[in-house]
Amino acid sequence: MDIEFVRSRFIKHFDGKTGNIYASPGRINLIGEHTDYNGGFVFPGAVDKGIMAEIRPNGLSTVIAYSIDLKDKVEFKVDDPVGPRATWARYIYGIVQEMRKLGVDVKGFNTAFAGDVPLGAGMSSSAALESCFAFALNDLFGGNKVSKWDLVLAGQATEHKYVGVNCGIMDQFASVFGQKGKLMRLDCRSREFEYFPFDPKGYKLVLLNSKVKHELKGSPYNDRRNSCENVVRAIAAAHPEGHFETLRDCTWEQLDEVRATVGEEDYKRAHFVLGEKDRVLAVSDALEKGDYETVGQKMYETHEGLSKEYEVSCEELDFLNEIAKADGVTGSRIMGGGFGGCTINLVKDEVYDTFIADAKEKFAAKYGHEPVVIPVVIGDGSRKIC
Length: 386
Ligand code: GLA
Known about the structure:
By secondary structure, the protein is α+β, with helices and mostly antiparallel strands. It folds into 2 domains: about 5-200 and about 380-385, Ribosomal Protein S5, domain 2; about 205-375, GHMP kinase, C-terminal domain (Alpha-Beta Plaits). About 45% of the residues lie in helices and about 20% in strands. It contains 12 helices and 13 strands. It has a 6-stranded mixed β-sheet with strand order 5-4-6-3-1-13, with helices on both faces. It has a 4-stranded antiparallel β-sheet with strand order 10-11-9-12. It has a 3-stranded antiparallel β-sheet with strand order 2-7-8, covered by helices on one side. The mean pLDDT is about 95. Bound molecules: alpha-D-galactopyranose. Alpha-D-galactopyranose binds next to helix 5.
């Protein structure tokens, strides 16, 4: 992302003065999908792509925001009870409201921002936007008194309250806490996490973007979450002596006990989540031993579960997964919320070129366009650039 590009637009669309520039990344996730809102584990890392915003307080009580990519300008009062209609602006509006609740005296500001995370690719462009503004407002108006975790939660609350996606905390966590060259294993129940240096010799991580737009808003994403919560409620009702907050607190036996009560669909969803929790732990062990074959095998298992049990895949992503398997790729799966977007692939150096060429050719022959190849570079989290 180019600082001069953002600055030139900021100068052009406002009064010629410059402000501070902030950046926040999108994320990848090695494994641990749909586990965050179930109190499980995730394994994300920030990427070298994200959102960059220039911001300058304007002495008013109005936010004037310009999206460079969409060429759209929106204004709203800092204390507006309703907020703007445009979805991109609602992320900024939501962050303003949540930061005010955290005691930050947010005043009016001018901002122009741009992004290089592909939209709707499952790489968390929205979390990058939220985290960028949460970090910036904390710096500009809050003397950096708000903790990083509260910035994460402000982003999540924005999704829940102002956008309508009942997401977990993985994306905002990765965007705020990311570190160059490191993945992070986060326990979403306790919020404890560890950094894992990730530089597998002889392998590459690459995303293939199917360009099937994934849109979590108004999508069955919230239905998946509801299914999981139904199962937890059923297990809690059957075990009044226990304490069950999320599927993390439930065992395979308890899930089987309530199978008839919750019905096959909710059962399948929860079955995937329990399996995914185990897979993340198996991957952590394998990574410590440098056993990438096991990591890859678990990635395939996750894909299978996301496709058949959680049902968040689509034909195009299943097709990319099949090509990976046929080409001897070590691991491949849908990444992120699903319903489109990317596969993440762990590929041995010696099969990389064949796989990429094959994926492009076969996908284009079937769907009329090539998937976009995005080599993964693990980058830093939210930061002030200047
Ligand atoms: C989206 C959500 C995350 C997480 C993933 C699936 O990216 O924002 O909270 O649930 O889907 O793992």
